[in-house]
Amino acid sequence: MNDSIRVSDADRDRVTAQLRDHFAAGRITPGELDERLSAALNAKTFGDLRRIMADLPGPIVQVPLGAAPPALRATPAWAVRRRHPPFPPLILCLCCSRRC
Prior knowledge:
Order of helices and strands: HHHH
Number of helices: 4
Helix content: 40-55%
Shape: elongated
Structural class: mainly alpha
Number of strands: 0
Oligomer: single chain
């Protein structure tokens, strides 16, 4: 595994959750937790995350083999036209027919 591969926010979140678990188990002190959380949140590569977790038991942070970045959408999510259900016009027609 190449330690120079950049990490995602999800990778950082996973490591911070593991650090909190190690703190709850009594493996690290509050001061160490603060230092490691700060380092994890500022980590740029998997090598940075591995160094933070090196002396703690548990799974090794790895990139899934064959993982590809998510595909980009052709149009942004806010520009996608949404279809509305047919019920409001139907209800409007029913209300109008009662008045007549």
